[in-house]
Amino acid sequence: MGEFPDWFPNGCPQQSDEVNLTVYHGCETNPATEEDFTPHARSQRPRKQAMARNGGCMAFGLSCWTTEIDALHAQELFPYAARWHIFSGNVTPEDGRLAPTPTGNQPTHHTFWPYDGVDLLGKFEPALPPMVGAA
Questions:
Q1: What confidence tens digit (pLDDT) does each residue in 43-92 have?
Q2: SS3 for the chain, per residue?
Q3: Domain-by-domain residue ranges, the chain?
Q4: pTM of the prediction?
Q5: Given this model, what pLDDT does residue 32 score?
Q6: What is the CATH code of the structural domain delimited by 21-128?
């Protein structure tokens, strides 16, 4: 089993599971970049940094969904997500841990916390384009 980076808060994540499944993650660019797979807490983008301030342990993982339908729902809900390229990738117990982290209007939202040194960028490929007419 891997270890989480030393910059994770103590005890983060508390309750999570090893998984072997496909997850879906929103990326701002296609092709995706390392920044697209950088947790908010470590991002250089001001919007992500602002979101990380109140994100707790979730800010140290990556937002994702476990079905394409759920990722599409996020694109439909939020104008910023409508601009995302949705990438999919298979994550395994060697890659990290996953937990459901539902929000008010996204009951199927999850967070994936990768282990130190895992190259998620290399594991993901485009799955859904941005929505047509996204602003």
A1: 988 878 877 787 789 999 999 999 999 999 999 999 989 999 999 999 99
A2: CCCCCCCCCCCCCCCCECCCEEEEEEECCCCCCHHHHCCHHHCCCHHHHHHHCCCHHHHHCEEEECCHHHHHHHHHHCHHHHCCEEEEEEECCCCEEEEECCECCECCCEEEEECCCCCCHHHEEEEECCCCCCC
A3: 21-128
A4: 0.92
A5: 97
A6: 3.20.170
